[in-house]
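RECORD TYPE: inverse folding
INPUT: structure tokens
STRUCTURE:
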């Protein structure tokens, strides 16, 4: 079962999981690239686009096809606005990966 929420289904959002906009963000820096991460159920989740940029994977969409559905999920701007800071307002969703998903990206 995919953990990426359906934008029209409130059951798939962080707010439905009891996680709100107060979610703490952590930044990791490597060679001038920032990797944003948040904790979900005491587990780190990393912004997929940042991880792909850090790993020089040019096609994030193709790279994410290699990540298991259980290792990725979508975040809404309304649930985690701090992750979207500085991004264009039309960007409303982003994908995050857990540690296993991050390893899937690393080993591509």
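DESIGNED SEQUENCE:
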């Amino acid at each position: 079962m995919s953990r990426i929420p359906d934008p029209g289904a409130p059951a798939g959002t962080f707010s439905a999981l009891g996680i709100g906009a107060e979610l703490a963000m952590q930044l990791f820096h490597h060679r001038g690239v920032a990797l944003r991460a948040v904790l979900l159920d005491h587990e780190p989740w990393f912004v997929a686009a940042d991880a792909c940029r850090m790993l020089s994977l040019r096609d994030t969409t193709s790279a994410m096809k290699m990540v298991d559905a259980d290792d990725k999920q979508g975040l809404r701007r309304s649930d985690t606005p701090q992750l979207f800071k500085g991004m264009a307002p039309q960007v409303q969703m982003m994908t995050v990966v857990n540690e296993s998903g991050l390893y899937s990206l690393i080993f591509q």
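NOTES: The two ends are 23 Å apart (CA to CA).
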